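Lab notebook, bench 4. Still working through the backlog of constructs that have no structural model yet. Next entry is a single chain of 378 residues. Request: give me the structure tokens for it.
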Amino acid sequence: MNITSSRWITLTRLSWVGVCMALAACSGPSRPKPTEIQGVPVLQDVRISWQANLGQVDFPLVVSARGDRVALASGQGVVAVLDAASGKEVWRLKLDQPLSAGVGSDGQQLAVVTRNNELVTLQDGKVQWRKSLPAQSFTAPLVAGARVFVLTADRSVLAFDGATGRQLWTQQRPGEPLVLKQAGVMLAVKNTLVVGLSGRLAGLDPSTGVIRWESAVATPRGTNDIERLVDLTAPFDRVGDVVCVRAFQASVGCVNAERGQGVWTRPSVGENGVSGNETLVVAALSNGVVQAFNRSNGERLWDTERLKYRVLSAPLVTPRGVLLADNGGWLYLLSLTDGALLNRIKLEGEALATAPVFAGGRYVVVTREGRVTGLQIP
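Model written out:
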């Protein structure tokens, strides 16, 4: 889950005993009250183009942006494809089960996972096939190369034939006894399936599941299971062969997925993923400080305390600035140069359910209440 409130952070034991954890409870005193932001000058225009309703989002939603369309879903199983430029529905389907993960899409086929541990694929508003999974999943399936890949919470990776649903292979790696109820990392880089397994990125052969390489972003440390938790969290950022990710409450790092080698890692205490461009990687800390790193070597370019003590969403780096929101429903645009505040607007609703995405010339944001908004940043 691209969480925007500490109460959304949930740990799940592999025996499926749920454990709730608020960050404030793990770090001592409650979070200080943030300083009021008064009179923000509009240095970059941000316009609302359209709005739509989806339904409450109470699971780790990932919005799939492909071309001029976005695929998204509600917690109660409403799956929809919208035209990103206008907000109009292309199609909508109500499944008969609530969801635990989704949406993955290659632009044609969509995939979600239900709370009953069932993988469901859809196309053109119709269910194609369903398959039972051996464990829960909180990561959106990856649809790529005529296959559907699933990362389950017991750190198994499964591959299915996209047309028939036939299971092709399974790969499992042992890990720590606690995992996040939060979207993990899974993507295709050329002919390699890149997956986050505990604090490591692993490159798998997509045809067989054989692990080609592993690269550590963070190493488990500490004296108890919570302190040792270093799962990699969505969203990630990819430019060319280099994938940059966050390890939960530990670090930010980049890995060359072609060579399977780490490029750099830097300490960074936060729970949400990262975003970037060809020159920088941006990450929000748990205390509301926003950091920017040089993409090539990890050197700190800037950090800003303008939003300190706010509970922030994962960022989205745009050509006009860094877009992110707090859990009070304010959306912010920060300067790429120094993190200065360029604009803020009030959304209808509270915290974002997932990181903003870009499609069809619009920046699409989804609140936990299910309000979907398309934004223009001219």
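Notes after review: The chain has one domain: 6-28+42-376. The chain has a mean pLDDT of 91. Flag for follow-up if needed.
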